[in-house]
Design brief:
With 194 residues, this protein is an alpha+beta fold. Helices cover 22% and strands 31% of the residues. The strands form three sheets. Strands 3-4-5-6-10-7 form a six-stranded mixed β-sheet. A two-stranded antiparallel sheet has the order 1-2. A two-stranded antiparallel sheet has the order 8-9.
Length: 194
């Protein structure tokens, strides 16, 4: 199944939702470049469509939209951060992706931000200091770390290792609106979050 079909399928998950996504592959030419899978996507209820503005992040690691709320415009971002390959390039790409998120936020009219996705970062990992700096700089809180304890969101293929690398972040002012956070464990996937 090619990525165009996958993106089309994303829009047909539920008749009550609209969706958009960014493929990790360049599907605009006959020569396919990039990973043979992956990307980011967001779904939202059709009834919210008049309040939603899709943002072109120009990066396959990010997709985003703003939504008008009673608290003011909120930027919602889905992110797939780089994997730690233990080289300078992966660290630089991690920093660059954090900068891109900050830039997207700064160029919108949003007053608050929610970011969810695969941060490829757990406590004490190589990216942890940058992750914490990003939280501080953007005045965000890691909601899942505040509300959960001892969870994991990734399991290695051999089922020998697990880690908590997927997170939900939000502006501090939105924390009072978060009523529940949980991890849904499904046997068919290696990353889980709800």
């Amino acid at each position: 199944m090619n990525d165009f079909i996958k993106l089309y399928t994303l829009s047909n998950i539920d008749t009550e939702f609209l969706a958009f996504g960014v493929s990790a592959m360049d599907i605009t030419s006959n020569v396919i470049r990039g990973r043979p899978y992956g990307g980011t996507a967001l779904l939202y209820r059709k009834e919210f469509a008049p309040a939603v503005e899709v943002i072109d992040c120009e990066d396959p690691r990010l997709c985003a939209f703003t939504i008008k709320t009673c608290e003011g415009p909120v930027l919602l971002v889905n992110v797939y951060m780089p994997t730690n390959t233990r080289d300078n390039n992966s660290f630089d790409e991690y920093v660059d992706t954090c900068i891109k998120i900050s830039s997207v936020f700064a160029t919108t009219n949003a007053v608050y931000m929610v970011i969810a996705g695969d941060f490829n970062c757990s406590d004490g990992s190589r990216f942890d200091d940058k992750f914490c700096s990003f939280l501080h700089d953007e005045q965000l809180v890691c909601v899942d770390k505040m509300k959960l304890n001892g969870e994991f969101t990734y399991v290695s293929d051999d089922r020998q290792h697990s880690s908590w690398i997927d997170h939900i972040l939000c502006s501090q002012a939105l924390l009072s609106h978060v009523s529940e956070v949980g991890v849904v464990y499904l046997s068919a996937f290696v990353h889980w979050f709800s």
